[in-house]
What does this fold into?
Amino acid sequence: MKEVHAEVITIGDEILFGQITDTNTQWLGSELSLLGIKVTRKSSVGDRYEEIQTILNEAAQRADLVILTGGLGPTNDDITKKVLADFLGQSLIRNEEVLSDVTAFFVSRGREVSDVNKGQALIPEGAVALRNQYGTAPGTWVIREQVVFISLPGVPHEMKGIMRDHGLPAIKKHFQTPFILHQIIRTAGIGESMLAEQIKDWEEALPAFLSLAYLPSFSSVKLRLTGMHDDQQLLKQEMDRQVQLLLPLIGNKHFYAATDINLEEHIGILLKATGQTLSLAESCTGGYLQHLITSVPGSSAYFKGGIVSYSNDIKEQELHVPKTLLEQKGAVSTKVAEAMATGILRKYKTSYALSITGIAGPDGGTKDKPVGFVCMAFASATGQLYSKTFQFGKERDTNIKVSASVALNLLRLGIEGKL
Amino acid sequence: MKEVHAEVITIGDEILFGQITDTNTQWLGSELSLLGIKVTRKSSVGDRYEEIQTILNEAAQRADLVILTGGLGPTNDDITKKVLADFLGQSLIRNEEVLSDVTAFFVSRGREVSDVNKGQALIPEGAVALRNQYGTAPGTWVIREQVVFISLPGVPHEMKGIMRDHGLPAIKKHFQTPFILHQIIRTAGIGESMLAEQIKDWEEALPAFLSLAYLPSFSSVKLRLTGMHDDQQLLKQEMDRQVQLLLPLIGNKHFYAATDINLEEHIGILLKATGQTLSLAESCTGGYLQHLITSVPGSSAYFKGGIVSYSNDIKEQELHVPKTLLEQKGAVSTKVAEAMATGILRKYKTSYALSITGIAGPDGGTKDKPVGFVCMAFASATGQLYSKTFQFGKERDTNIKVSASVALNLLRLGIEGKL
It folds into this structure.
């Protein structure tokens, strides 16, 4: 099977000048990878005719598939369409389907369709419109000298919607991409290099049609095993066999799911399945752990609530942490973390509770307890009480995020009975 | 003054395949803009010799400044250095300063310096090392046929550190960039298009050496007025004059700071200055508002804490929201929001309190109160009580973030006495 090479071109000064974050190219790179298509170059150019024309000509020489995003809006700045039409040697003609989409879009919002808006229905002659259910600018698909050109609006949710609805299926069909399988293995509590060391022999022995990617985030590493083969059955069997070999090497303490779910979703599934509930008491993470837990749709089924006890008063008054403990051990100590977890567990009457207290920084560190020193405790209604101390880094924002991520894994281990 | 054109080249398959988010190019684009240097193209290529060589040759034809990031680590994948040396027609030689940096880095961590690590000290002959205080791979600065080439490691905090310490000052000096002034105007509670409409006449009348950028985020628009002129005094005077004309057009309700601080920082400054305190009661935002407030270093001086009352039990038990109110008005109502704000204010004994209750989605919406329906209340120890209802969108994550952002502005207006 021939390798398909793609280039992604982003158009817009606001990206070049760093005024907005470009999330489109990452998404496209990832989606094309999942189809077995290799992105070999990404480029960003400004909103100027010559710049777009130049990059189009360059990419056409190198790639099988060229995807352009941005520069399709109704205003004069947005000229991708004109450049593309000239590049194809075509004129812009009105597409009736798109016109009816644009009209419907405005009518449903009780607004008039201006001439400027009607201009959105112009696409290069010979191009196929990729209709946009999420906004007004359509995408287009056109082939010139065996190279496929797709142009898309730059607004991320419109771009993604059009690609999911029309672009990706058309690419799959046109390039007859090989049969591809992906298997996600989610791990937590183990770093990338240690995990790599632990599974090194297995990885080296993988057959050539299987490849492994490490996708790390704060305290969790996602593994993605990708297989490409013409024989679907053989591929499926070999993938399954390799996963069965892999899991014992990772071990049950670090492996938590063979589907692409994060720790907060996994915890939600565990709690929902058994009808158990959760409460949280946070100090240095200031609500971020509760934010992660409640970012899961339906989390109100198991998360009753929690407290951010930023001051010692609140730790005493609301979580019943003894004043003597705060004075003797300090607010950042395993004993206080344990009292916080027990306090919220009893008060909110939940199956499980977790607490975090620490020094996020940049100030507040001491010699004994420097910035990044964090204590956590896990408590259960059955009487289990576990606490642990961590030393993270110096940056406030990272400390908050790493602490919350580590806490999720502690919570997972506690609920799974692995602490 | 001649325009300086820059290109940024990112090297690494993990960026092309969408495995990691590239934040480097946005940061570089923004920093170069602030120096008056225009980024005219950004490119990403893979870790292959030929690809890097090709893009280097292309960029050298077009730009005055070429910045490469990535591909400088100690392993074999990272080959930027070799390509760059060959491109310059130089060999790699050992830089003693860098070697002592690398050695010190490992010694301070109690680790041996391996030969692979020592290899980090190799840089192209004739290049200037941009020393790295944050890791082991140095940057380099070299000029070839009047084009400046800077290569930097890909790890964001190392790349930024090296640029701040050495790269940006050297660029400023070498290109004798013109005198540039930036003035930030922070606004909240007004959308980009409405703001643009309101200040349109002023913007159109700006002299050619001043330009305005709109930098919008959730419910806040940052304006950046940039001026470039050889006459520093004239520029300063005209900038000040224009800002004085602009502020009344925005109005005190939407303008909150003429420095680059976000709402949570601004609220922190207001509270610290008057020794006042804050508590928060969140339902649908699940702790995200408390996370924003506590993301500010030193927030423990004014934020006592708060409650995430996800279940009605907790609203009743902890915030003393009357059961009859929950039954008659529903948990998402201005009356319940008011009771939550009053409840937390009294319990946590703070100067101000704010509450949020709403339907984040995707489930839980009704005909009267669809997904995105959110109520907020502001309460003060002096007896003020203000509540408001909002209708946001359909996406859970966006609803959480927009709600928190709008709540921060409500809090700001309350503290400033503008509600």
User: Anything to note?
Assistant: Chain B has a mean pLDDT of 93. Chain B touches chain A through 68 residues (CB under 8 Å). Residues 198 and 250 of chain B are 7 Å apart (CA to CA).
